[in-house]
Write a structure and sequence with these properties.
heterodimer, A: 565 residues, mainly alpha, 73% helix, B: mainly alpha, 4 helices, disordered N terminus
Chain lengths: 565, 118
């Protein structure tokens, strides 16, 4: 292990553990453990949501997808960023005003149904697992590159998976939402700083975005493929114009026109159903604050993804020319093209900053994976600890018992994710699935956007939604999405495959239709007006704002009295 | 735990106010959502119909198509977000919370149902 690797790992540990120690919960209550006391301000919450959302899939995966597929890879960035538009328009403020602990609890209470709550927990857990595995994979890939050695008899990849997951599991189990919020906020700032540094050094070295795209467009897009025990370069098929070669700066290297829209809709609709992201909205003090937070998130993720797309392009343009000067690149590349596209940013970091640059990017990648893992583990703990244990198994549980159950479920979810990530080593998948990390995250978005988002949106905006309708819609969306993306994985490249691989464009309307039809066929729910007053009224917001003003006034006058003495 | 307006008589919204605000908010949300979908769907349409979209060069020698995916769409999403959030907050401010000041009269109430300012 090099000195840089040790310094990087120690720095990551110090930041993560230090922030958790300083901000650890002071009370053993579930509102404090799961929701940070519901007093997280707009700036802190927007940074924390970004830290939560910008995972290894965003940091390593988007640049990798652009690296391997050019403009078509950038659709991942567009889809991930687009997700916050439906959140802002349809979900953020009413969801926060209803003020439950989790998405499952929101649906269960709004539709007055334990069955809805428990089925939602099942879907939420599926989404969390699909999202958690690629984050652990990201931790493993980064350790492999940064350290290159395994510990305790494990491979370097398995060591990275186990260590990154274990550290963050302990941090979440004992820091709760308060510690996790501040960790994610600090981690997002570090992540953005790492991308800004890389963009600055690459630009300072003479990288010109337009010229790079022009140069890459002058030749067909080729990528290494592992065939019969050896690597060979394969020309990408043009899905948009089959009679022309696929090039970097034009659509077609991965998706046809329908595939582009299907991917963006899948990623865009999925965000509103991601439990770890949406649970963060319950920590905002008011619905209005939740809405304002989302505007800040939209701006911050826009900057982040624009940089990630630029750096994916830079890596594609610059790495072939760097192989002769940097012999270590030879074992990572075939004809100047990286074998594992997720290595794009770390390699760029090492080219421009040597071991320190690699250390910085690797630290950022570890942080990206860990901050998202933190959010996912906390969402899992909320789902099991609050929605299942407190609501159904032991409704008389003390706050202390409920918090400890949440902690135990955090550790159990972490162990499951680490085990599955080790079983799904990316080496086995890369040739078949460019950018494995981003592809696996797409599955989580597909289930969330097809099963949860339609039901959440209808529960907020359509009074007539019933529990039976929501259950039928949720099951249709989940089963449809899973069946479609599993079918797609056995199909040859075609327009139909593109649609099935990003299934929300079909599965979400099906879920909406089934929810509406079944709701209309069942008895209308009672007492919806009270729910409407909470979700669409602003009484609680105004009350909370008035209380905050009074508290501030009280503090100020106390200060003045203290000063006068 | 969550603040419940039901526990706080002095700041409660009337059902009529909430319904009027809800209808206006729904109109705002649906309008901006349609704009959002149109923007997302526009790329493949422009790609198929306008040669200029991928062939010409704009800022930084990038084509309009590449520029929109690399940066333009993020700016548009942020723009939609800012506009919708501003309008939604303004709608809530105008249409809700009048009970603390005075009971709205019939004419005022009609305006509120329409989502307009009296």
């Amino acid at each position: 292990m090099t000195t840089t690797a040790i310094i990087t790992l120690v720095a990551v540990l110090v930041i993560v553990l230090g922030v958790s120690m300083i901000t650890r919960p002071r009370h053993s209550s579930t509102v404090d453990f799961y929701l940070a006391g519901q007093r997280v301000g707009v700036a802190t919450n927007s940074w924390a949501i970004c830290g939560d959302y910008l995972s290894a899939a965003s940091f390593l995966g988007v640049a990798a997808a652009v690296y391997v597929s050019g403009l078509d890879g950038a659709w991942y960035a567009v889809g991930f960023a687009a997700g916050f538009v439906p959140v802002l328009l349809l979900v953020a403020a009413p969801l926060r005003r209803y003020g439950e602990f989790s998405l499952a609890d929101f649906l269960g209470r709004r539709l007055r149904s334990d069955a809805v709550r428990l089925h939602s927990v099942g879907v939420v857990q599926l989404v969390i697992l699909c999202y958690l595995i690629p984050q652990s994979v990201g931790g493993g890939i980064t350790w492999e590159l940064l350290v290159g050695h395994g510990l305790f008899g494990f491979s370097p990849y398995a060591t990275g998976v186990l260590l990154s997951t274990a550290v963050i599991a302990v941090v979440v189990a004992f820091g709760g939402m308060r510690g996790t919020t501040w960790n994610q906020a600090v981690q997002f700032m570090l992540l953005l700083a790492a991308l800004l540094w890389l963009a600055a050094v690459v630009s300072a070295d003479g990288f010109h975005y337009g010229e790079a795209v022009e140069t890459l467009n002058s030749q067909p897009l080729v990528n290494p493929e592992y065939v019969d025990g050896s690597w060979e370069m394969t020309e990408e098929r043009n899905a948009a114009s089959p009679d022309q070669p696929a090039v970097f700066g034009e659509p077609g290297a991965r998706y046809g026109q329908l595939g582009q829209v299907a991917l963006v809709v899948t990623l865009g609709m999925g965000t509103a159903g991601l439990p770890h992201v949406m649970n963060r909205y319950f920590t905002a003090p008011t619905g209005r604050a939740a809405r304002t937070t989302t505007v800040w998130v939209l701006m911050l993720v826009g900057i982040f993804y624009a940089l990630a797309v630029m750096l994916g392009t830079a890596a594609r343009d610059l790495i072939p020319g760097a192989v002769s000067e940097h012999p270590w690149l030879q074992e990572l590349t075939v004809d100047g093209v990286l074998r594992v596209p997720e290595h794009a940013l770390p390699v760029l970091g090492r080219i421009y900053g040597d071991q320190a640059g690699l250390g910085l990017i690797a630290a950022a990648a570890l942080i990206a994976a860990m901050s998202t893992v933190a959010g996912l583990l906390l969402a899992s703990a909320t789902s099991w600890g609050h929605d299942v244990y407190e609501r159904h198994i032991n409704p008389r549980a003390t706050q202390r018992q409920a918090v400890w159950v949440g902690r135990l479920f955090t550790l159990a979810a972490a162990a499951a994710a680490a085990g599955l990530a080790i079983a799904l080593s990316p080496d086995a998948f890369t040739p078949a699935m460019p950018s494995l990390v981003a592809t696996m995250v797409t599955w989580a978005f597909a289930i969330a956007g097809s099963a949860l988002t339609p039901v959440i949106v209808l529960a907020i905006w359509w009074r007539r939604t019933t529990a039976t309708g929501a259950l039928a819609g949720m099951m249709t969306g989940a089963a449809g999405a899973i069946a479609m993306f599993l079918t797609a994985s056995f199909m040859e490249a075609s327009t139909l495959r593109e649609l099935l691989a990003a299934p929300t464009l079909v599965a979400a309307p099906a879920a909406i239709l089934v929810t509406i039809l079944v709701s209309l066929g069942t008895r209308a729910p009672e007492g919806v007006e009270a729910d409407w007053a909470i979700m669409h009224g602003t009484a609680a917001d105004r009350h909370a704002e008035r209380m905050a003003q009074l508290t501030l006034r009280e503090r100020r006058s106390r200060k003045e009295r203290g000063g006068a003495r | 735990m969550t603040l419940s307006p039901q526990d706080d008589g002095e700041v409660r919204d009337t059902p009529a106010e909430v319904d009027a605000a809800f209808r206006t908010q729904r109109r705002v949300a649906v309008t901006y959502f349609v704009v959002f979908l149109a923007v997302v769907a526009a790329f493949p349409v422009l790609d198929m119909t306008l040669e200029w979209w991928l062939e010409s060069r704009l800022v930084g020698n990038l084509s309009p198509g590449f520029l929109s995916v690399a940066a333009g769409l993020f700016v548009i999403f942020a723009g939609i977000g800012i506009a919708a959030a501003t309008l939604s907050s303004s709608v809530e401010h105008r249409m809700l919370g009048s009970q603390g000041d005075a009971e709205p009269d019939a004419e005022d109430h009609d305006f509120r149902r329409e989502g307009r300012r009296p």
